Amino acid sequence: MTYFLGLTGGIASGKSTADEFFEKQNIPIIDSDLIAHQIMEVGQKGYQAIVNYFGSNILNDDQTINRHKLGGIVFNDKTKLKKLNEITHPLVHQKIKQQMERYRLNQEKLVVVDVPLLFESGFESLCDGVLVISISPKLQVKRLMKRNNFTKEEALVRINNQMPLSEKEKRATYVVANTGTIDDLEKRLSDLLQKIGRQRKLECPNCHKNASRVIDSRPSDENRAIRRRRECENCGFRFTTFERVERSPLLVIKNDGTREAFNRDKILHGVMMAAQKRPISSEQLDTLVDHVENEIRKQGLNEISSKDIGNLVMKELANLDDVAYIRFASIYRQFKDVSGFMEAMEDMMAKHDKE
User: Fold this and answer.
1) Relative orientation angle of helices 282-298 and 306-318, to the nearest 10 degrees
2) Sign of the C-alpha dihedral, residues 21, 24, 27, 29?
3) Does the first or last residue of the chain, that is N or C, have fewer Cβ atoms within 10 Å of its Cβ?
């Protein structure tokens, strides 16, 4: 099974240095910049479409596209930049998929897919994981000015035309900081390769073979998590995994005063039981639990009572489905008699009257 590692970052963050390291490790690299150059060559599909839109003024004497002139136009006009991306991204996407399929057929273990605008252009869905090379804003400006002989203003224009690095870091599977020497970066990348080697094979819950591949990735829980849809190459079974930032421990105070670690799966199981045979998707329930956990985290608590968690769950369920709300309440509140149950029903009906 081939593991495709998306590589991205900000301009002048150090992706090329990372590429050089991967090349020294004999790891194949799919270079989207190289592909973009190729589709803009005379006679290629992208060439004529770009010339038709931007005019012949962007051409050199030999009729090739002057990329410096083209860059000067699009990086000062977001509408024209958007148009250039609309022309080139589908063509680059097609070429990348073709190369990925060749590597997959050759049974390469690991392939790096270098795409500077990976998130902006939706290429993350093609990758099993995404590596972001990170750098501080101040150092990024300094390096770009030196590398391209830009003024500070020119450097900032180029940087501000990209998604902020902080946003890319939130959506990444792996983040490697490039704030030291080349040796420092290579050491961190070497450590990362060992980590990927341990993690990349994920067991299929159906046939238990380590042969699943990612077929779709998308942000979840307001970019706090990555939802990945996987397919087993052995039995064809499809399942979903979520990657979340590891947070500080949270303890739950039980009714008897004892404490246990917060377990989101326990909450999810409870709401799934309450939502049986209701028109509620598993994704909606997972989002509900995310909201509950995030609400707890927003309060900055290290401990919370099970009663308070139950109240948060009921608040979310009340906005999602009346029947699921009543079912959950009947178990959580442990009504002693019918009048308590009727009171909960009346509260729900009063809520609807207000709406």
Assistant:
1) 130
2) positive
3) C
